[in-house]
Specification:
alpha+beta; six-stranded mixed β-sheet; 7 helices
Length: 317
């Protein structure tokens, strides 16, 4: 039997399924605004953004009727600048493919496979935006949300995965960190969100080991700390030990996950973006090139005392 006939016979015996499978992607919470309040207000061509800050100072005292040394108050205006980076990718069609697309369009149909190239470029940009927003880049002087230099870090030795660590101790460990922010800011700042690694979240959602109740540590925290502002405890793969070491937050072999406490309010933490844009197309070597780009600021942490990083031993294998 000729090879062509064999191939045709094999194809005849196959059934093509209707569904077109595509890779399932993780949610990019540091790119899509889920983790950080995001404003799509960056203007085209901006290389820096500037935040004005006012610092008020002053004192007062009891004076006599003829006092001449009344203390004076003042308000000083300063500016803080942040870099804006441009992240780009692109996709292309050959000259022949473009002719096929135009022909298909004239017939009222679409050249299906090419639609996905633009999506792939957009996803590549989003992945990079997500990474730089989360972990930053020293090369571009771009601070990350998960390792911002102005935020305090607690290097804890508490092992919440140890079999001797009770649920009450885990509860107290997290509760004390929430109250630490409230105390050091005199109740001005109250964290709404606790982001934790996958393993830490699993520990917090285990039924209480030392109680007949099926209430979890997570439920207790959300119920009892609501008046202190806590609204959500969120699992986040970006806080896993291996990711932190991969992107330079921790040195290799640190073996610690990170917890992040913060108020998810735009006046406390925010980021600014210029959404995905298309640049003018190019033509070279019988290929049409379609560049795309997005402009992003780092996460602006306007009140660092409202935020807290806690590093703790990861779950042993």
């Amino acid at each position: 039997m000729a090879p062509q006939a064999s191939i045709a016979r094999k194809r005849y015996l196959q059934q093509k399924l209707d569904r077109l499978l595509e890779r399932r992607h993780r949610t990019l919470v540091y790119e899509n605004g889920e983790a950080i309040p995001t404003l799509a207000d960056l203007q085209a061509g901006v290389s820096e953004i500037v935040q004005e800050q006012i610092e008020q100072t002053g004192d007062a005292k009891v004076i006599s009727e003829q006092a001449f040394d009344i203390p004076l108050a003042d308000a000083n205006l300063t500016e803080v600048s942040y870099p804006v980076i441009v992240i780009a990718s692109g996709f292309s069609y050959t000259l022949i493919e473009m002719q096929k697309i135009e022909r298909a369009a004239s017939n009222g149909s679409r050249f299906r496979v090419n639609d996905k190239r633009g999506e792939a470029a957009a996803r590549a940009i989003a992945e990079k935006v997500n990474r730089y927003t989360a972990y930053g880049s020293s090369q571009y002087n771009f601070p990350g949300f998960l390792n911002h230099p102005d935020v305090d870090v607690e290097d804890s030795s508490t092992d919440i995965f140890d079999s001797n660590t009770t649920d009450d101790e885990v509860y107290d460990f997290v509760k004390d960190r929430v109250y630490d922010i409230a105390k050091r800011t005199e109740l001005i700042e109250q964290p709404t969100t606790l982001r934790v690694s996958i393993d830490v979240h699993a520990r917090l959602t285990d039924p209480r080991a030392n109680s007949a109740s099926d209430t979890t540590v997570k439920n207790l925290l959300l119920e009892n700390l609501r008046e202190m502002g806590l609204r959500e405890i969120v699992p986040d793969t970006h806080l896993n030990s291996d990711r932190l070491e991969q992107y330079g937050v921790h040195a290799a072999g640190t073996h610690k996950d990170r917890m992040v406490l913060y108020p998810k309010f735009p006046e406390v933490v925010e980021r600014h973006v210029e959404p995905l844009q298309m640049a003018p197309e190019e033509y070279r070597n019988m290929r049409y090139i379609f560049p795309a780009y997005a402009c992003v600021s780092p996460a602006l942490i306007n009140f660092p005392d409202a935020m807290y990083y806690i590093d703790l031993p990861k779950k042993s294998a």
